[in-house]
Amino acid sequence: MRVGIRVICGVCGYTKAPHGRSAPPDMYYCRNTCPGYWDEPKPGCLWPGETEADYGQPICSHATSDA
What we know:
This protein is low in regular secondary structure. It has one domain. Helix content is 6%, strand content 9%. A two-stranded antiparallel ribbon has the order 1-2. The longest helix is centred in the C-terminal third of the chain and has 4 residues. The N and C termini lie close together (6 Å).
């Protein structure tokens, strides 16, 4: 079981939002419009603390750890 972890953008300093997922507009997350979004550490598919089972679809291995 994989769980999402928090990854910080080296450019803007915000937590990177998972790719392909929407964050509320009033929340401060690094988004794919930031030049550092796709740099290491890469964003994953899961929100921090969200599990692979919670998401219910295949996930990538970026920004995850073993639960």
